[in-house]
Amino acid sequence: MLVDDQELVRAGFAMVLDSCDDLTVVAQAGDGEQALAELERTAIDVVLMDVRMPRLDGIEATRRAVAAHPGVKVLVLTTFDLDESVTAAIGAGASGFLLKDVKPEGLIDAVRTVHSGESVVDPVSTRRLLRATAPLLSAPEPVAAAPEAQAVLAELTPREREVLMLVGDGRSNSEIMGELFVSEATVKTHIGHLLAKTRCRDRVQLVALAFRAGLVS
What we know:
- There is one protein chain.
- By secondary structure, the chain is an alpha/beta fold.
- 57% of the residues lie in helices and 9% in strands.
- The chain is built from 11 helices and 5 strands, in the order βαβαβαβαβααααααα.
- The chain has helices at residues 7-18, 32-41, 58-68, 83-92, 104-115, 123-138, 145-153, 158-168, 173-180, 184-198, 203-212, and strands at 2-3, 28-29, 46-50, 73-78, 96-99.
- It has a 5-stranded parallel sheet, sandwiched between helices.
- The protein is globular and about 50 Å long.
């Protein structure tokens, strides 16, 4: 489903996605309320969600959509001048984010990646965005956030903490392989253990955890 208050944006994205044999745009919505209503009556796997929309914005719509439909993956559309919205979207349960000027092949790959259960986090974009929003992530937004993060870290092995720190720094699996001199299968195993122990939904939330826990500054 495409959710954006600009019909021209939706039309462009729909044209790109519908050109693929394995992807179909089954619904469109102009705001968050319409999106939630559409989710109740249409089988949807992935939602492309704009941030700024009338009536109900994309952040709150993402939070409600994920809570009511745990199997639905949400990709939030953003721009670099909306960095705060990126961190809010992650907290709301989004599986990743895309820049609105994404290239067609990038859009297609992102939808396929999220549908497969992975997150869309480009390492370079992640580093740029999280450096800009580090104060937001490390702020005690609820007061108990930092102690809770530290409690989670206490359950990790030294190697898992190391992998979490590298994930938080925006490193890809191949970069972590090179840094730790291990195989890709080993990296994937460590990340799987991290997701299970921290109860994070995906790699995006692992990045946020690394910042809140002070592993990355």
